[in-house]
Design goal:
alpha+beta, Trna Endonuclease, Chain: A, domain 1, 2 domains
């Protein structure tokens, strides 16, 4: 499906260029458009982990919990951060998937972590694009751009001391 849409976009751009200039320009534009799509698919996506690193200075421990997923354990609590940085669209879709479905999956994964750790885990989905507010709640899931998510986490009142953080980190590793 995605390839068909991209092919149609490339063909339409080629036809427009051919109409304005000549057929060679149309072929060139269509080819360059397709090449751009191929390159965008092969270049690795940015990872939101870079923004999360600033949490370390505030006493948080970042633990990898899978591809593009981190457990941030610190004074403000435990956060399961999905750091793929998918784009959010005005039609309430995150990375092409309905936002509610993304939130359900994030909440389910956070619930599994809660059973392992024995404490509340707040799921956070990092996105790119415009949001109506810096941090949007979808049920118990927070959706935010990386910097806004970090600000939100750092703004939480202290809920865990150093001993709690160490205990939760060890529980996660075992």
């Amino acid at each position: 499906m995605r390839f068909a849409v991209r092919g149609a976009v490339a063909a339409a751009l080629g036809v427009m260029a051919a109409g304005f200039l000549d057929w060679r320009a149309g072929v060139l534009v269509a080819g360059l458009t397709l090449l751009t799509y191929v390159l965008l698919d092969t270049v690795p996506r940015a990872d939101g982990a870079r923004s999360l690193r600033s949490l370390r200075g505030a006493g948080y421990r970042l633990l990898r919990d899978g591809p593009h997923r981190y457990l941030a354990v610190g004074p403000g609590g435990v956060y399961l951060v999905f750091a793929r940085l998918d784009p959010v669209s005005p039609s309430r879709r995150i990375g092409g998937v309905p936002a509610e479905r993304v939130a359900e999956r994030a909440a389910a994964h956070a619930a599994r972590q809660e059973r392992v750790l024995g404490t509340e885990v707040v799921p956070v989905v990092l996105v790119t694009g415009r949001l109506p507010e810096p941090v949007v709640r979808l049920g118990r899931v927070l959706v935010a751009r990386p910097r806004d998510a970090v600000r939100h986490i750092l703004g939480r009142p202290e809920a865990l001391d150093d001993a709690d953080v160490r205990r939760l980190v060890e529980r996660h590793r075992s």
